[in-house]
Sensor protein FixL
Amino acid sequence: MKEHLLEGQTLDWLLTSAAEAMLIVNGDGRIVLANPPVERLFGYTPAELIGQPLEILMPERIRAAHVGMRDRFFADPHSRPMGIGMELYACRRNGDEFPVEVSLSPLRTDRGLSLVMATIHDITPRKRAEEAVLESEARMRAIVDTAVDAIITIDERGTIERVNPRAEQLFGYSAAEMTGQNVSMLMPQPYREQHDGYLARYRETGEKRIIGVGREVVGLRKDGSTFPMDLAVAQMQIGARRMFTGVVRDITERRRAEEQRQRLMQEISAANEELTNFAYVVSHDLKAPLRGIGSLANWLSTDYADKFDDEGREHMRLLISRVHRMSALIDGILQYSRVGRIKEATVKVDLNVLLREVIDLLAPPPHVSVTVAHPLPTLVGERTRIQQVFQNLISNAIKYIDKPAGEVRIDCARDGNRWTFSVADNGIGIEPRHFDRIFQLFQTLVPRDRVESTGVGLTLVRKIVEMYGGEVWVESTPGAGSTFYFTFPVSHGMQSGQEAHA
């Protein structure tokens, strides 16, 4: 058949040298020639294909329909793609289907025989790429449509091309009402005119003002109300077109929170000012008459000692004691109010020196021994505040010792980037249910007539320790004593006492 149809080797050479799969079919739809790429594409040898109907290369589900299409083509043969507007699929010998594009070209031999040359191109890679693009677009569309921020895309003239559902909710317009309109419709004056001018300057000069930067602007809703918003704009190039995507976030709540924060800061500042004035009044207007009462009570108890009976002398003792307690309470309140408000210079504080001064100042009674376990580190902070911490803890330990031989022990251990200090005593101890209460202002566990206390000391300790980012707690067994712990940050470059004396 081949020798009958073809004269010379021209067509044979063309088929053999072609990179695409090509085959020739006669008017009966049977294959008369197939080149090597056909074998590689379909898995059939040319000998297996010659004389077979063309439909052998198609999935069974479309073979019957293809016969009619082939007959119509031979009735009016002309060069054209096959299956315009349709997705075409071929079938390999092993049954695998794959997408193809087919081009048809009519041929007529010198002896008048009508043939068709079909060029077959496997478009699987392209289909996969298209599917990947569609999948990516679907994912992007899902992200845009579900975004919590409004997203608006415009062209370089400001015409809105697309908006997401959040933009509809935020501005009150439907997508149809916004699409095709100038984006300045979403801006109040004077921003509307400024935006048109900005785009014009950008087209002429390329000057960017907010692209890739972002800023706070004002938006305009359909109902005429305005609201503050964050606007970030990104530019993209689609072919020869420049497009801009704006991401808009309503910051009304943030603005309200900022305004509320500003009001609170002003109120705190005013409260601090009032506290400063109160501290001044307490220091000068209360302590002065208190000192007068104390002096008068001392004078009466001394000069009229022989005039008082036992009950009178006890009353005078209680009076003088309460005057001293009131004075100490005022001093404690003043100290508490100054922590964090009145700043001292931050210095290196050698605790070995500081503890000697604190112990000398407290002058423990003879039956109480105060010991330091080993050399202590150097801290960096306000010296007075650090002194107040140790002075209050050691003073409390001494005050609540009920044993004939009292012991107070100060210790320290390093735990990573902080020091853990402890002040232990063998005093009366504290029941666990009171562990939180003792750090509250004015709280004492023992009647003040038994143990002189203002109830400010531990509260002051906690405030100072927390100011430096530490924490304070207590461990205690009733009757056996208490240990107060607190932490303090390790200062960079500081050495412990052991390291410094090594």
Notes: Residues 1-8, 445-452, 498-502 have pLDDT under 50 and may be disordered.
